[in-house]
Specification:
The chain is α/β, with parallel strands linked by helices. It is about 45% helix and about 15% strand.
Length: about 280
């Protein structure tokens, strides 16, 4: 019966409610079947025609949080990326941490001289004799996607940088690449142009099997916005200092000192981070 109900997506479009879609999202977060079933039963008995997908998410997240914090944090991941705003600067630092976890030497928010003009580069990722110039496109809602204009623009900027960089003696023998990272998705035209032009694109679920969600989970590089024991205000303060991942706090717990958090709450925050980031 509930499968005939319509829900309102973030884009405003309506689609039939799917118990299986909700089940899969809970499974992807790592929830066990004995946790999933009661949540599905609760949501199915509670939803109504025309309800927003956000309200369903909030309900499922609240129920999941009562069962297991680490799984709830994973379930929250997509929305956590949206909560890194309102500016795009924290996401730039987050993208830098992602590439650092992948073995690159990283610089964030650098000014480089191109052949024609200067450019601000969000992330420079270097490994061996390869260097990538990365632009970050951050959106506050999931219904905003990076269209073909984004890689078209980035390709021209990257080409101007490469033309200059390749003449510098310290980069003799280097291979240069351009890339675009977004917290949402690329349109089909954007992906086609990226592949054709040689740009490396990274989005929530692209490339297939190696998008942001897979890299974050595999490398345990969760943004601090997934944390349920840290207030929104404290998250903003940390992100303003360039502290954007749980791993950064785990590696340097002293980063919490400036927040004036009581010891018992501090211990709860660190316990939540260890559950997310430490593999037994």
């Amino acid at each position: 019966m509930n499968n005939k109900l319509l829900i309102r997506k973030a884009s405003g479009d309506m689609e039939p409610f799917s118990s299986e879609k909700l089940r899969r999202s809970l499974q992807r977060s790592g929830a066990a079947d004995n946790v999933i079933e009661p949540i599905l039963n609760d949501v199915e008995s509670w939803i109504y025609d025309g309800i927003s997908s956000r309200k369903i998410y909030d309900r499922a997240f609240a129920l999941l949080r009562k069962k297991t914090l680490s799984v709830a944090s994973r379930y929250k991941l997509k929305n956590a990326l949206m909560e890194m705003g309102p500016t795009g600067h924290p996401f730039e630092h987050f993208a830098g941490q992602v590439f650092k976890a992948l073995g690159y030497n990283v610089e964030v928010a650098q000014i480089l001289q191109g052949h024609c003009v200067t450019h601000e580069v969000d992330v420079i990722a270097s490994k061996e004799k390869s260097q990538m110039f990365i632009e970050c496109k951050y959106y506050l809602t999931t219904d905003k996607n990076a269209n073909v204009q984004v890689p078209l623009y980035i390709r021209s900027r990257v080409d101007d940088i490469i033309k200059k960089q390749s003449t510098l003696p310290e980069f003799a023998g280097y291979t240069f690449l351009g890339g675009v990272v977004t917290n949402t998705r690329f349109t089909s035209d954007a992906m086609a142009y990226g592949e054709c032009s040689g740009l490396k694109l990274l989005s929530w679920d692209y490339p297939a099997g190696n998008g942001l969600k897979e890299i974050i989970d595999r490398e345990k590089i969760f943004p601090i916005t997934v944390l349920t024991k840290l207030s929104k205000q404290d998250k903003q303060r940390l992100m303003g200092q360039g502290i954007v991942t749980c791993r950064q706090i785990l590696e340097t717990p002293g980063t919490l000192d400036s927040l004036g958090i009581e010891m018992i709450n501090r211990q709860k925050i660190l316990a939540e981070i260890k559950n997310l980031c430490v593999t037994e």
